[in-house]
Amino acid sequence: MKxxxxxxxxxxxxxxxxxxxxxxxxxxxxxxxIKLREAARRIGVSPSAAYRHFDGQEGLxxxxxxxxxxxxxxxxxxxxxxxxxxxxxxxxxxAAGHGFFDFAINSVGLYxxxxxxxxxxxxxxxxxxxxxxxxxxxxxxxLPSDRYPFTYILTLVAQTNVHEGELTDATLVMWAAVDxxxxxxxxxxxxxxxxxxxxxLFDLAMRSMVSGLNL
Length: 215
Hints:
The structure is a single chain. This protein has 215 residues and is mainly α. It has a domain at 69-213: Tetracycline Repressor, domain 2 (Orthogonal Bundle). Helix content is 65%, strand content 0%. It is built from eleven helices and no strands. The chain is globular, with a radius of gyration of 19 Å.
């Protein structure tokens, strides 16, 4: 256990610091380790100071989840941005998938913590689902593609020859392949496989999805 910071906290943004330490806790023990009082203890502030920014465990956990989603999306976009100029939409989709996969198997504790807290896909809510197939601007405004991996994949799939009416289903299938393989290889039955084997299987899954969806 880390020692308590005995110096008074009197600089910077306490909310941001609480989220930063919340990420540390997630690294160490997953979602269940994200404790507001423990974060306050590590920073060296009173629990009452922490409660001014979050109303409890759920508030901090939600903020940590949002930051993990942001980091995950950044990992995806970094892979896409590294592609040569003129890359095709399919190449971008595969690159984004690899960014997701690499984050999942290398971000010790963070991806499992995210999966533990995700209960539903907000894009499939009664309000948003009717808009996913054709109103990408509305989806972007509600769930920005720089912070929501599903929106990011959705915008890439929309650049292919997929029929507008099939955009939601095609993205869900691609999402299932990326997220499913990432979960299997990070915390599931394939977690102890060599990285080379995991990557080879992920590549095969991506090629199969792209070919099967005829994008």
